[in-house]
Amino acid sequence: MKFQSQKIAYWFFASAMALLVLQIVYGFIMGFARIGMDGLHEWIPFNTARATHTNLLVFWLLLGFMGSAYFIIPEESDRELMWPKLAWAQLISFLVVGVAAIIGYHFNWWEGRKFLEIPRPLDYLVVVNVLAFIANIGATIWFGKRYTTTSIVLYFGLLTAALLYLPGMIFFENQTLDSFYRWWVVHLWVEGVWELIMGALLCYLLIKLTGVDREIIEKWLYVVVGFTFLSGILGTGHHYYYIGAPKYWLMVGGIFSALEPLAFLGMAMYGIAMARKGGRKHSNRLALVWTLGTCIMSFVGPGFLGFAHTLPQVNLYTHGTLVTAMHGHMAFWGAYAMLVFAVITYALPMLTGRKLWNNTTGYLAFWTANIGFTGMTGALAVAGISQVYLERKAGLDFLMVQREIEVHFVGMLLAAGLFTFGILLFIYNFIRFGLPSDEALIPADLEGEAELEHLERRTV
């Protein structure tokens, strides 16, 4: 860590971990409800738990992205964050908005639009908060001592994510129009501009962890992110198949949704190739494991499993079923959650000055979380395929089908228990690193191996 203001990233990461735990709690509430154990229904009905679960996902991932930006941008720009106090105010206000939204869901105070349930007054506060964040990192880059492709792509991804939040605030009485523009937020975030953020963060981590020349990695960043971004934008069409939009979306959505897995495959090959080509044996191997895991699982979740049900001929039967939940869970975990974990794993030793990487707890957290999540995805896949056949081919009643597939949620809950164990191990490791320390600061002219050696000399 070179700059005092980078320490703010720690508190964004800590807040993200707290909200992740809360998200998991609501996931278990829904999982037990699925097998008939719905004892909390009077206080937390399924629709409330679902809205809370999905919105907490967005909140903690955004906190993770913001924390990553506050850690990376000062270093990439070679200067302190422009307004550190604004960053603190932004974190506190963002958490207040998030808590207010969660409380509101439990009192039926929401918009009722899937993934965008946050009440309208809070929408405006989110916009102000994100604008403050964009201004802070933008000014840091503008007045920095240097410009890098990594920082510019990261800033552009965060800026466009902020701008694309605005279409979700427009109200339409026509259901088709409302759904049409709602996907400008939901899809163009996770399969569009968030991929710019993902590419920039992966680029930064690979530069630091592999030792490959920055110029080489950043050239590939343009190619991979450009292809991913293009296919993601037009791939929005796979949400327009059966909502009343023009028929040409069947062709556009089908073709470009088929190209999206190739973009994520390119991301995976890019990451692995850079790791093999790198000459630096960075001591923080655990951060590299999370980074390469992100590259691989981002192909499995958004790429392979997305392609499995986004062709029009298949989606005719699978839309609105648990097949979508199967894809969505692994997509968010593989592409974005694991990426935030990778940045945290890399940044913590720099922030705290404590060398606690590569321990058994860290590796156990990685493998149990990933094995558990893969098991959850498999259970949802079997449940979804069973639902499609029983409900949409055999013609059984919806509620009867839900009863028949309860057994698969038992398997999902068991896998979720293993996943939760891995997350708790990760958080335990997070706590062990301690709070950010001024002793972790190093002279601005120390980089690369010199920085690593500085940390190696620190005692645990």
Report on the structure:
Helix content is 76%, strand content 0%. With 460 residues, the chain is mainly α. It has a domain at 1-119. Helix 7 packs antiparallel against helix 8. The chain is globular. Residues 443-450 and 452-460 have low confidence and may be disordered.
Give the overall form: globular
- Please give the share of residues in helix: over 70%
Largest sheet: none
Intertermini distance: 17 Å
Structural category: mainly alpha
Low-confidence stretches: 443-450, 452-460
Brief descriptors of the model:
mainly alpha; 0% strand; 460 residues; globular
Write the layout of secondary structure elements.
Elements: H1 8-34, H2 46-77, H3 84-106, H4 120-142, H5 149-163, H6 175-210, H7 214-234, H8 248-277, H9 285-310, H10 312-318, H11 322-352, H12 360-393, H13 398-404, H14 406-432, H15 448-456
Short description:
Helix content is 76%, strand content 0%. The protein has 15 helices and no strands.
